[in-house]
């Protein structure tokens, strides 16, 4: 009987400990997401220091990628970190970069246990951070919250493994799967709540990409226009094979305030590139494809990755969207659907491709769905 009581008590304490671990790791994930769109080329990591069930330090990767989350949380914890547990959403780094290894800070702090969500695929880390912590006598548990960490750090993982950003395709479609009216006439497809959600997504991406056709038709500015979040605007990227971007466009006029990168072909005329450069834009030349004619999208993504971009939002143009889909370069889809139809002559969401080629594809699964006023948002992600 006594043994059974002790066993039950131990089991209850174990359940409580696991529940606490999940709670603190969830907080670390939430903190890490504060840095999305601001830490590239570094991942947006979150960290929490807990001692005797009390949070004594919190941290997340700061703008520009430094300080990292762990040193920031440990700095706030101070001496309270000794004997405490560190929850972190990505394996602490073990190499010298622009800052010292995070494992050195963890070891020096006196942390007794580290709960790490997932191993970092970066070859300079790749388990070595966990190994060094264990070698220093620190208990290391890996895997709690791994699925959420893989999603939050998808841009970092994709850049390390495939030398390209994580691509998020955003589509706002009418009830009859159109993204615009005939003749590119302006039409409001979604309401204010949906537009706010889009601007929030922009703030969490490193860069946002549109095609030159969208620029010529709509003259967008492509910034985050939520109050107080203007500084969270992503890098604007334009696919412009022949450098047709007008010098009086809103994108060019704002190039010195918010970075503008123009991707063009090796054959684009130098004077046009010089004019854009003089206005503050950065022109990058990438490989051109003969069939179908246009920029090599994989080369575009490699170039963006080389500049540090980890999360790319593709927002503009049915032709651009369909090209990314056809090239199998979409990792995540944000599909916003309005309640009204546009009718005959409207612009199809994916040019010649049916929208069902995405929404009905076994390559994608539904991750989340929500109602935004009269509109709906469905988020899809790669099934594998």
Secondary structure elements and their pairing?
Layout: H1 2-33, E1 46-51, E2 54-60, H2 69-77, E3 85-88, H3 102-109, E4 113-116, H4 128-135, E5 139-142, H5 146-152, H6 154-162, E6 166-173, E7 178-180, H7 192-203, E8 207-211, H8 212-218, E9 235-239, H9 250-253, E10 260-265, H10 270-278, E11 282-286, E12 288-289, E13 294-295, H11 297-306, E14 311-316, H12 318-326, E15 332-337, E16 347-348, H13 356-359, E17 364-372, E18 375-382
Number of beta-strand segments: 18
| Span between termini | 49 Å
Radius of gyration: 23 Å
In what order do the strands lie side by side in the largest sheet?
11-10-9-8-14-6-15-18-17
Low-confidence stretches: none
What overall geometry do the principal axes of the alpha carbons give? globular
Tally of alpha and pi helices = 13
Average pLDDT, all residues: 92
What fraction, in percent, of the residue positions are helical? 25-40%
Describe, in plain words, how this protein is organized in 3D.
- The protein has helices spanning 2-33, 69-77, 102-109, 128-135, 146-152, 154-162, 192-203, 212-218, 250-253, 270-278, 297-306, 318-326, 356-359, and strands spanning 46-51, 54-60, 85-88, 113-116, 139-142, 166-173, 178-180, 207-211, 235-239, 260-265, 282-286, 288-289, 294-295, 311-316, 332-337, 347-348, 364-372, 375-382.
- The chain contains 13 helices and 18 strands.
- With 384 residues, it is an alpha/beta fold.
- Strand 10 (260-265), helix 10 and strand 11 form a beta-alpha-beta unit.
- The strands form 4 sheets. A 9-stranded mixed sheet has the order 11-10-9-8-14-6-15-18-17, with helices on both faces. A 5-stranded mixed sheet has the order 2-1-3-4-5, sandwiched between helices.
- The model has no long low-confidence stretch (mean pLDDT 92).
- It starts with a helix and ends with a strand.
């Amino acid at each position: 009987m006594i043994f059974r009581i002790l066993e039950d008590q131990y089991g209850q304490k174990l359940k409580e400990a696991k529940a606490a671990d999940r709670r603190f790791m969830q907080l670390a994930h939430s903190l890490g997401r504060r840095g999305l769109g601001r830490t590239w080329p570094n991942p947006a990591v979150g960290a929490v220091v807990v001692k005797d069930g009390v949070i004594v330090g919190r941290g997340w990767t700061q703008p520009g990628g430094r300080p990292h989350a762990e040193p920031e949380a440990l700095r706030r914890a101070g001496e309270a970190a000794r004997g405490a547990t560190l929850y972190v959403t990505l394996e602490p780094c073990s190499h010298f970069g622009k800052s010292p290894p995070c494992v050195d800070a963890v070891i020096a702090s006196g942390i007794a246990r580290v709960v790490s969500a997932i191993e970092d695929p970066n070859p300079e880390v790749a388990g070595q951070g966990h190994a060094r912590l264990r070698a220093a006598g620190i208990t290391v548990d890996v895997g709690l919250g791994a699925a959420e960490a893989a999603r939050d750090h998808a841009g970092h993982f994709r850049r390390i493994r495939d030398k390209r950003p994580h691509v998020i395709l955003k589509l706002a479609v009418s009830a009859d799967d159109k993204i615009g009216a005939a003749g590119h006439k302006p039409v409001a497809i979604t309401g204010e709540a949906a537009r706010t959600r889009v601007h929030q997504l922009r703030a969490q991406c490193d860069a946002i990409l549109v095609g030159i056709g969208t620029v010529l038709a709509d003259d967008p500015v492509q910034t985050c226009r939520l109050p107080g979040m203007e500084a969270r605007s992503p890098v604007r990227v334009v696919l412009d094979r022949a450098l047709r971007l007008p010098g009086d466009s809103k994108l060019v006029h704002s190039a010195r305030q918010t970075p503008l990168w123009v991707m063009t072909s090796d054959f684009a005329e130098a004077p046009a590139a010089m004019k854009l450069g003089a206005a503050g834009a950065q022109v990058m030349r990438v490989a051109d494809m003969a069939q179908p004619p246009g920029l090599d999208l994989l080369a575009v993504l490699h170039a963006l990755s080389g500049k540090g971009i980890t999360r790319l939002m593709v927002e503009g143009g049915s032709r651009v969207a369909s090209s990314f889909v056809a090239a199998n370069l979409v990792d995540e889809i944000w599909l916003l659907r309005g309640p009204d139809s546009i009718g005959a002559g409207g612009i199809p969401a994916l040019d010649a491709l049916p929208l069902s080629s995405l929404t009905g594809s076994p390559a994608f699964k539904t991750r989340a769905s929500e109602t935004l006023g009269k509109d709906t948002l469905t988020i899809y992600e790669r099934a594998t």
